[in-house]
Amino acid sequence: MKLISQILTLTLFAVMCSCAPEAKLFRVDDTKVGVNYKSSRGTIFNQNYSFDNFFVIDVDSTTQWTPNKEDIELAEKILRAQIKDLNKNRVNQMGSCPVIHSNLYSYFRQYVGVKNDKGERVIHINFYWDKYGMFDRIRGSNDSRLSYDSHYTMVFDGCSYYWQVNVNLDQQELSNLMINGAA
């Protein structure tokens, strides 16, 4: 009986370990890779993607690198672990604007790998609200940027429906949380 119990425990443990969610990456075109991870989705812009006016605080936006599956998984892990504390003031998250750390899976992501001034790997993540319901779509609230082949776009205003953060993979920390203003 004890042997059966041990076998069942080991089997259950093996099944649980093998079910850990992995980021699924797929090629979109020569400069973009699609990402599905847990209940979120997004686009990685590779090091060959040409930015016209890309500028992010505290990083060298001309030194790009291409994040891989493990980098995205680590960035998402750091994001989930630290966003609530970094977002404690809930800037521009009042009224009908969502609280970002309570709605992480409600955003389409755009990932850009850049280096900071110390040469550390940083993933800049641009977030777009991705939970438009049927009524919203009928009213015309639909964002065409929520597709894997969309170009990188900065949005101004829109409160916490649009925001950005940097994830330093080498230091394993979030920084530069920027939540859009409300017009």
Which regions are unreliable across 5 or more consecutive residues at pLDDT < 50?
Answer: 6-18
Could you tell me how far the N terminus lies from the C terminus, measured between alpha carbons in angstroms?
A: 67 Å
- What is the residue-averaged pLDDT? 85
Number of helices: 3
Helix content: 10-25%
What radius of gyration results from the CA coordinates? Answer: 19 Å
Class from secondary-structure proportions: alpha+beta
Q: What is the number of domains?
A: 1
Global outline: globular
Major beta sheet summary: 8 strands, mixed
Overall strand count: 8
Classify the beta-strand content into a percent band. Answer: 25-35%
Structural overview:
- This is Lipoprotein.
- Keywords: Signal.
- Residues 1-23 form the signal peptide.
- This protein is 22% helix and 30% strand.
- By secondary structure, it is an alpha+beta fold.
- The chain has one domain.
- Strands 1, 2, 3, 4, 5, 6, 7 and 8 form an 8-stranded mixed beta sheet that branches.
- A hairpin with a 4-residue loop joins strand 7 and strand 8.
Q: Could you write a compact summary of the structure shown?
A:
The protein is α+β, with helices and mostly antiparallel strands and 183 residues long. Helix content is 22%, strand content 30%.
